[in-house]
Design brief:
10 strands, alpha+beta
Length: 170
């Protein structure tokens, strides 16, 4: 889910400043496309005043991230690259995890989507461990490989336990 918030600063880009959101597909290269898998993502705006937009990205069992700065338009497109520099993300490195090749990614392990990686998420993984993955009914596959197993717990949930969302809410 991609959300746009209209605010003068990242700290004031609260949930109440949302002017639009839409679902998209997270591609293996880190880009987000429309739900057809090929088109650029389009977000319809409501009530915007022309102020700056901050981008929030939600993923089903990862902590959300938000842009540190307002995004700018270039050739009728708004873009941001969260993978290249942690400085692009609100609260910088505490919002992302370091990946191979100098890239950054969202923090995995939030099975219940409450913004915290904690014991409840571990309980979800324990109940689903060994079960076949189903997009609609299982959230314990933290590395998105289609299997719910010890790798999800050891390399993602346990590694990220006690981490929480840095996206302003209220």
């Amino acid at each position: 889910m991609v959300e746009l918030r209209e605010a003068v600063s990242a700290a004031t880009a609260l949930a109440s400043t949302k002017v639009g959101s839409t679902a998209g597909f997270l591609m293996s290269d880190g880009t987000i496309k429309a739900t057809d898998g090929t088109s650029d993502l389009t977000i319809s705006l409501t009530g915007n005043t022309g102020a700056d937009f901050f981008v929030v990205i939600y993923h089903r069992n990862h902590l959300p991230v938000m842009s540190a700065s307002a995004i700018s338009e270039s050739s009728s497109l708004y873009t941001i690259d969260f993978t290249s520099a942690s400085a692009n993300t609100y609260q910088t490195t505490s919002s992302l995890t370091s990946l191979s090749g100098g890239k950054f990614g969202m923090i995995a392990g939030d099975a219940d989507g409450d913004g915290d990686v904690d014991a409840t998420d571990l309980s979800t993984w324990q109940a689903q461990n060994g079960d076949p993955f189903s997009y609609n009914s299982t959230n314990g596959d933290f590395n998105l490989d289609g299997e719910i197993n010890a790798v999800d717990r050891n390399d993602f949930q346990q590694k990220n336990v006690s981490k929480s969302s840095q996206v302003p809410t209220t």
